[in-house]
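fold description:
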Amino acid sequence: MELENKTIIITGASSGIGAAAALLFANEGANVVLGARRKPELDRLVGQITQSNGHAVCLPGDVAEAGYSEALVDFARDRFGGLDGAFNNAGIVGDMAPVEYMDPANWDMVMATNLKAAFLSARAQIPALKAGGGGSIVFTSSFVGFSNGGMPGMGAYAASKAGLIGLVQSLAADNAASGVRVNAVLPGGTKTAMAGDDADVHKLIANLHPVKRMAEPREVAQAALFLLSDRASFVTGAPMAVDGGMAVRLL
């Protein structure tokens, strides 16, 4: 029970990595506070967890909207008495195009969801964690925008995810002495709705990885579990690659 009696916020929890994390964390004893835009999916996930004797609640909303991060923290405090950690996993790819052809509105939307929302989440969560004596925050970045993981047509996504790594490292430096650890997981290609359902595309993505397959959402969630748990008590500011070897592939 790696997270027994810990209260953890999970954003982007309605599907994919976030949903896998919700199930895994609850099974490891956590009280999970689930956030995403799609209420029916969140309600079903809460029902699945509670039917298995887990503890879960949800609050639908958009991470890019001012006030939602504070609302999730307040909700966690009201329902479970405090906050011990967060897995800030929500994110979008946006429209893929070379930057010279990209609509500025697409750039702004990707940055708001992937990077500004991370700032808003940290701004709300860090005081609550400090009030409880410390805790852990994990963000979902990506191999795209890190090391040699650049991909064509993904300038906005890559910039947002690279910026997120810089934010994580700054947050880690600012808050380490207060007992708040901040890290990022960098998934490779993962079998989620974001990757679509085209088998040929999946085969192409899989072959980019040295392991020659895509990740299951639970595999990424397990890395986040480690970073949120006491097993990672000396880990902060780390961009943890969970990428099937993408960071060391030969181009």
